[in-house]
Amino acid sequence: MDESRKGPRSGSKSIGHVTIADRRQFLIGSAGLLGAAAFGAGTSLGIGRARAQSRAEISFASAAFFGKETFGDLIKAFNGSQDRILVKNIELPPPSSSTEVYQGLVQQLARRTGTPDVFSQDVIWIAGFAAAGWALPLDEYFPADKRSAYFTGTLDACTYGGKLTALPWFMDSGMFYYRKDVLEKHGGKVPESWADMATIAAAAQKAGDIDYGYLWQGKQAEVLVCDAVEIITSNNGAILAPDGKSSLINQKGAVEAIQFLHDTLATNKISPQDVLSWDEEPSRQPFTSGKAMFMRNWSYVYPIAQDAKASQVVDKVGVAPLPSFPGGKSSACLGGYQLGVNANSKQREAAIELLTWLSSTEVQHRIALNFGLAPTRPALFQDAQIKKEQPFMASLEKVFTGATARPITPEYAKVTLALQSGISKALVSGNVQAEMDATAAQIDKIVG
Amino acid sequence: MSAAATIPSVGRPRRLGKALPGALWALLLLTPAFVSLASVSFYPIVNGLYLSLTNTSLITQEQAFTGFSNYAELWGDPQFWNAWWHTIWFTTASTVLETVIGLGMALILCEAFKGRGLVRAAMLVPWAMPTVVTSKMFGWLFDGQNGIINYILLHAGLIDQNVNWYGSTDTAMITIIIADVWKTTPFMALLLLTGLQTVPNSLIEAARMDGAKGWITFWYIRLPLLMPTLLIAGLFRALDAFRVFDLVYVLTGGGPADSTETLSTLSYKVLFSTLQFGYGSAVSTAMFITEGIIALVFCLYLVRQIKRAQ
Question: How many C-beta atoms surround the C-beta of residue A448 within 10 A?
């Protein structure tokens, strides 16, 4: 094998010389092969130590998150923890540039060269990567009994066509922020239905206690789909039929829910018109400066609200699951990054080992403490150290239990553009049924 | 050839030139320029055209020749026509405003006054700024809640409540046009200023001697002589405005309700969010064709102007 690899390389000597890069490539290649062999032999024969250069070389690509450490530090820790596998960290742009992260991953995966061996992916890309055949099905490595340790909503998002193609890593979801002090004046009970929420918000607004009753995100962007998924699911509606082949967005459940969002702008006016151009940050600012009573947003808002330098509402903010419609269940849009293995990886065993390590209880614990990213294992929410250092995160178990995946379809990128455009039009014009009919027809064409 | 070159050429300086016929020499010398242009300009265009005739998609991994089906789909795609009209509207409005205001600025800067050099330099600052920075700046200026524009208008009594600049379909596009006018008018002014400086002073002096007032001088002397520059500057600006991307992408993302979607943002979404390279290339090609038509119209006018002048 070594000789056969050497053959074409020395054959290419016609250029005149072998560059250092060539030699390195060759060394890496043969080291990888040796490493895999050593890994197999090492584990079966119990040989603990292999030579340094015989480690299996794999790569890990992820959007760059920061905290007390980076993912590069995590990978270093993995490299130091054993001597069979050497992982190279490929840093992609930060999660705020998720379109660029997506492009970066697609370009690498589409080449089918096996690089990166392990990668992290936003929940909405999972189905697309699986359908393209880029993500290795993980069922044989993680049978049902191993999966029960994760939140079911996250597992659903990691499953495509009945196969587990991603392993849960860390998560976030939409949640309901409220002002404890203002709520105290208006009954003191956190509203559990959307109608109650609207009534309380309108009353507080009328009494002049706050400027805005309820803030959400209506900008024609991905976050609008998140807000919509939450409110539609909480009315027993859905965007796609269970088989993923047709749209239900023009059905009663969904239309009522979008109508409610429109009413917050047009009828009961508990939300300012500006919501239509706001994504997360513009909606967060009035809330943390004390102008609003309720808000839908992600978990990142809480630390800001508790920071006296940036917030007027320190210790006045509470978080609860989002309200629901009568007969529906509170629902939170699932976000976060999940792990996948490249189907073309030449180092499958090593990749699985890294994947297992990254998603393990210990590493999720470390990520929770050092990055502030919430674990996908419910058991960790009872962990004493997490409860002590990240009390807010520990309190979110109930919110995360209701986490709902966005439509699971390989055509998600097209579906979301149609949804953003259609829902935005419905919110602006108020012709909810007509716009949803048009959007449903468009989505049917995409997924049908 | 190298053999020919090494032969001592004393007394025969033209030897090398005669080794190749003149036309061939010219071609040979043009080759590097042609190769570099072809690889960075011609090839991408042709490849784009080819892609637009396929159903290439990175996600589905399809890559088959489908003839004109992408264009048929495009023809019946309301999203595309919506974006097309917005782009035309944006291009027309911003080009006209920038030309008119830019002309005014150029006329002022053409006059001699103290500190003219400084003003000319300062004027270029908006144009030198990266568009993304401009976009963020206008995002804050026109913010619906805390924006200074709303604050000024409200206190001047011109509006009775905050205008929702980016959140309303009525004002979102207008706000983007204002931002573009602020940013690019200096560029127009600069181009027109160079044009104004080519108008011979003797003509203006002669007109003054004949008793022509400022307005008459401008209308009958300066403007006709400025026309070719005006058309070329307008062409530059229109083609550039047609590709508007950063302002829309940063400020509204195409919303609300698709009211600010332009061809560039649409093709970006189709190409890079959904990774449909086939259909996305069809959108880009349609954009390319429209730009070609705009350029053609301007050039016809320009040719007519030049002919009339002769």
Answer: 11
